[in-house]
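Lecture 7 notes: from sequence to structure.

We start with a single chain of 724 residues. Read the sequence below before looking at the structure.
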Amino acid sequence: MRKRLPINCRVAALSAAIGTLACVAPVYAAEPEFALEEVVVTARKREESAEDIPIAITSMGEMAIENTGATAMDDLVGSVPNLAMDPNGNSLNSWGMRGIVSVTRNAGQESGLGVYIDGVFAGRPASFNFPMNDIQQVEVLRGPQGSLFGRNTIAGAINITTKKPTDELEARIKVSLGNYERQDLQASVSGPLIDGVLSGKLSGFSFQRDGYVDNFFDGDSYMDDDRVGGRGALYWTPSNNLEMSLSVDYLEQDNRQLFGQTLEPILNAFVPDWYQPEAYKVNQNDPNREQIESGGIGLTVNWDLESGFTLTSITAQRFADFKLVADDDAGPITLSYSHFQDNSDTFSQELRLTSPSNDSYDYIVGLYYLEQEVDANRITAVVPYPDNSFGISSKSSVDSEAWAIFGTANVYLTEALTFTLGLRYTDEQKHSDFTQVDSAGVGFPDLRFSPAQQDDAWSGDISLGYVLSETTNLYASVRKGVKSGGFQTDIVDFTSEDLFVFGPEEAISYELGFKATLLDRRLRFNAAMFRTEYDDMQVGQLLGLGFTTTNAGQSEIDGLEFELEWMASQNLALGLSLGLLDHKYTSYRGCNGAAVNCDGNALQLVSDWSAAANIDYTHPLSNGASLDFHFDWTSRDEYFTDAVNDPDLVVEQRSLLNARIGYTTADEMASVYLWAKNITDEEYDSLLWKYPITPLAFGESTTGLERLVGEPRTYGVELSYRFQ
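Now the structure, written as tokens:
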């Protein structure tokens, strides 16, 4: 059976940028007094050292997650080179990696980034921003990963591992209080139900905070935080060669989510106080709200056969439902507002056979099946909320069925040289029913489409890994990722079914990597250089009042990534990461629906660089307790939010500084921390776009600039206590 790694040293510091443990190891002959602990990952379906696999991977453990104060996956984005999440709420956001950023605002579009919870595909992007409660480890794999993971992974994969039930009874409670009436509560209990056979776990959380954007219209606030949920698990070992894990999780979110702030002072000439010059103030009469329910249940079975092989089965059902209403005109009169509702269900079944490890080779082969149903309603109305009878509405369903066969083999050519081959064949069929009705008479077509499409493709990877020394590795790889086609199930302004359907896209990534652990395991340095050739890109855009997605053409993305972790002393750890991208469309004509050539333009939603750094220091006290200091800094360069590279649509560069300072008791059972995020109170935009907000009211087509503003300075105190 697979054994859990023993925790045999006290955590002294931790690098949030790299996310690995730094600990004081027992002193043996020829052993260093202190060193970085080996990072063990399961990204390739085996327990392996992150330094030994030919993949650019960032792993963040439990303490790294806590030190960043993360309550959701988006709080960790800045710590990973070339990982991006551009928010428009949690239901319409865009996730991406290494320049491949997918806009997924409707039921017919899917992300090129795969998110997996305990080996299970998360489903729709509305559930990607997973709560960071009761998490053991987060692994971020950069570049296509089609031969290892079940769904679209053309950009990369995020592999989230929750904590397993423990063999001994333990419990924990954590409370965080802060400005904007922050009140967070997390609690968990875990332990044996039948000694040596069955253990269980329950955990829950409540994240509550008032909004930081004030509404001039009603005195209320937007951009609050209101999430509750939890998870439970059973771990059963009926025999020495069989283990079963049953897990269930649930999240309910209800936020006054802002979807736009106007940046047009001229609007005040039509309606006083429409435009608010202060970043954290708006004047909007129609509601802005986002409600999300997501979760699922999964059963994982591992059976160790007498032959040494392991048979794994993962059966899961997940759902992600959301409702939102948005004041499209972002003003105090009703010109346009939207009401969206999506419901999705995803069933997946994976079977894997893992060979025993030996000196010559090992391999994994598997089968994967997925069935997904998504139903969606879109209403953009031009009468006061909540009367939806006068506007443009669409109803759609998208049914997907996919199966795949995959395998990965490692061949150990010499003690130093390893050849790895991964292959995957995927067959996917999709069908959509779509209707659109213009009851407002504003010129949108009444439509009914019912297309189907079938995509099948090979993907995979080839790599060579070479051991230069016991502490230094090189690798070279070629990876191909594919993402199936889809449908533009939104409010549309075209009549051709050909524009409703878009085809698959693919990316081939060439990569050279270097991994080293130096200075008696006190310094870890990883670097990667890559080129991605991205073909038939699925690019979504707003054209007029309607949306369209087309296979744009080609692009090239060259990049460098560096990650460094240094344990400078027994009590001091430093971390640094940097991602650099040189990106452009190499072929993209007609990129705004007209005769505009975007060849040579920068990719939308992609920064030229991102960086992060952290300092962790533990000061031991005479009573055995400690004072702990953590500082982290993240920065991201500017980026365009459209393919045309409109100079008005440049989100400026931003840098954020966060800190935690606390006291931990000698037995590590209790702690109290002071924390702060965005210490310098930097004012920054997180998203920009243009929207035609005035033609219905003023008889002329006026394009307005809108934005979303980032979170200001927040601070508070956190108290935690463990029971054993």
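The chain has one domain: 11-361+370-723. Keep this in mind for problem set 3.
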